[in-house]
Design a protein that fits this description.
The complex is a heterotrimer of chains A (about 350), B (about 290) and C (about 325). Chain B is an all-alpha fold. Chain B has twelve helices and no strands. Chain B is globular and about 85 Å long. Chain B starts with a helix and ends with a helix. With about 325 residues, chain C is an all-alpha fold. In chain C, a hairpin with a 4-residue loop joins strand 1 and strand 2. The two termini of chain C are about 20 Å apart. The chains are: A alpha/beta (about 350), B mainly alpha (about 290), C mainly alpha (about 325).
Chain lengths: ~350, ~290, ~325
Amino acid sequence: MKRSFVLVIAAVALALTAVAAQAGCPTKGVKELTGAGATFPYPLYSKMFAEYVKACNVKVNYQSIGSGGGIRQLQELTVDFGASDGIMDEKQKAEARGGAALHLPTVAGAVAVVYNLPGVKRAELKLPPEVLADIYLKKIKTWSDARIKAANPGVNLPATDIAVVHRSDGSGTTYIFTNYLAKVSPEWKDKVGNATSVNWPGDVGGKGNEGVANSVQQIPGAVGYVELAYAKQNNMAWAQLRNKSGNYLEPSLDGAALAADQPNLPDNMEVMITDSPNAKAYPISGFTWLLVYENMKDDAKADAVAQLAWWMIHEGQQYALPLEYAPLKGPALKKAEALVKKIKANGKPVLN
Amino acid sequence: MSDVNAAASRRRFLRRKVTERLAVGGMFLCAGVTIFFLVTILGYVLYHGAAAVNWEFLTSLPLPPGENGGGILNALIGSAMVVLCAAAMAVPIGLGAAVFVNEFPTAGFGRFVRFLAEVLTGVPSIVVGLFAYALVVRPLGGFSGFSGSVAYAFIMIPIILISAHEAFRLVPDSLREASLALGIPKWRTILRVVLPVSSRALLTGVVLAISRALGEAAPMLFTAFGNPYLSFNMGKPIATVPLLIYTYATAPYEDWHQKAWAASFVLLVFVLFTSVLTRAFLRGKSHE
Amino acid sequence: MQSEPQAIKRALGRTLIRSSAGKTRTRDARVINLGDRVFYIATRTLASCVILLALLLVGDLFRGAWESIGQFGLKFLIGTTWDPVARQFGTLPTIIGTLVKATIGLLLAVPISIGAALFITFYVPKWLRPIISYPIELLAGIPSIVFGLWGLFVMVPVIRVVQIWLKAHFGWFFLFDGPAVYGVGVLSGSVILAIMVVPIITAISRDILLTVPRLQIEGMLALGATKWEAIWKVALPYARVGLVGAVILGLGRAIGETMAVTMVGGNSFDLIHSLFDPVHSMASQIASEFTEATYSLYVSSLIYVGLVLFGITICISLLAQLLIWRLSKGKVAIFE
């Protein structure tokens, strides 16, 4: 009688632990975590962590000091996890003092190409990929250029000069945008390249998304790129872009989520989803990643970080859409789960 | 007196009068321009921020975007603690060094110190932040409010030093000589004569330094780091108002923009408060 | 402000009582010397702290910039390409951008702030003075980001209108022959710097001008001078050196200011040809790129920019020292 009673209790306890483990709360007593990195997901993470402290009573302090800052703090072990809109390169990985780092995608976002043309409303303008690249290369200088006209029959294009607006500060948004341009224009890839900060052929640099949005709104004939949330918030006109399958699409969260829905996603999820082959994908989309060490020395910390990551890609996803982020779906979610399960404490996997 | 002389002297007088009028007009214009920008900018901040400032704003913690309400309590407390700690370091060093530079000129390296202070005022705040990171954060292995204080102190010291030095320089030597002639030792002369006489200008320097520090966000990125929760621990990350303003102002949400303006408004009131309070305190101790 | 006789009386108080007893006189002398020595050592230590901090900063800058110095040497200062992808870094455009914006900003700010300070000190009735002075100090306390936002939303559209007008009427002049329609650029950057620097210079100048002995000015007035002549010939020469100190503080802010200038400066890495061209200043360059600098040569180059900025500030301060030296050797108001 006693033995079966103990067994029942043990079974219930085990089940409860399993449930708790799946529910994403740290099981080894960690009450605080610190993270730093990308600005793009900051509003979402701040919402997620506000809910997380209610669910698990664990305070997560995340500050948006930039993807580069996040990578650096992770390398120097001053934070428990980092966040980045770009992928760490070989040298950065080598400089990480805690060993190999995993890139866990959490959400995806879309980058809108916005413009200021009086009389041309939102989504009226269509920009084929080579035309967009050549505008940013300063090879197409006015809106009345033949190639723009050819893609937009029936649209009243003024003869104004094109004022090209870009980001003056390094940013993940630039990384995604230049990644797209490098894919669709060999000349861009050669002359300018793909990075968080590049040597732009012209014209005006705005600080932050709001700087670019504001400059585009103020300068007649301007074109720029901003995260979708800013374009929506400022009621800006955005262009339709042609994706790899030949369809013209407006920027949208669905388009971004579908861009992530492609076959042959690598296991380590270190992939840029710009110019995605999916038929309904929006061409300029990108993941944002949580950067986590694969093998951590501190048992409790490893457990806490793994639980947090698990929670973020499951329960946390419900907060994405209202804040204009595209949640993880399908194959992307599966790969992310597999990556979280790879987190180890002193060689032993944390999650079952 | 001949007519020519009278006419010439009348012309001279007229010229001087016209110059006077023009000069006064010019100065009035300058003051007017300054006040114009004052009103424009302060008015803008007030207009955009005052509506969102209420008791809840001052006493509650920040909420994530999309949720109404929330406030900046942690940032207010954090900023106050970090700046007070910074002032505790910066004021003695700045004032003490200024005393040394002005009152002991025979020591030689005083002028070098003054020169260094001038150079240091031009260091951008982000470089100061990186310096504090290398000095405090990396050796200690984590972000802390204390490292933020170090960064702020670094910004404040040159401002206090230079304005204090100028203030001391303008205390007439006759005063010092009179005091010394009466047998008062030099150190007491400095403490009881020079300091009180220059106290108004000293205070302006300290207030300027504090308000400069209160408004700088860049150094906080790599030192105090920020903290969405309430904390009184200077050894851990802590929230500060300028960083909060920066984060809110650059987000795509209108309610966060409003909070950024409201926080700026609160900051300004705080600076005004400090300014008025310290002046009143001073006037209480001595009389004009 | 304490009146001067009262200050002396207070300091005098205890010393008089002590030295009235003849026996204690020798003891007094030693006590006095000890007090002086302690005070001297204390203040000297504090002054040395400043030197220590500056040395640590320079050391840290050199350490961080070492890789970039090794790679580019002095060519960094005349290179005109800033390409993080091709790993080519040169800062001549931003050096010019910084100097031009700071110079124009100061040219605009100094006359306005000194004029305003003069007006507040000599022409405004005493009761009105604090009402005007406190808000000016308040302006000095506005966070840079707020200045930047106000600049972007309110000032830039106005400057754009001005630029378009200037280009239409004086476009033949090279300074006005640029992309007026951007609004952001050298002119906007300079104006926002001027606005930010005016409160600092005004606040300190006002205090300095207030210390000019009334006796001197009243003496001039009694001799028949107009008030302006008394100011020009007595107050300004007396306060000259202090005013330069105030300007130097303002200059420091102008050169080191990052946030506001980044928001309205246009931020390009090309050499400027006109007042309307967009360009980075060194501080805004560092602040913009640092958090996202992804490899060590990039970070090192940015720190190298910080070092160059430090060097430029040293040169400008040396020039200011020269100016002060010349000023104090010139005609000075007669002291009592």
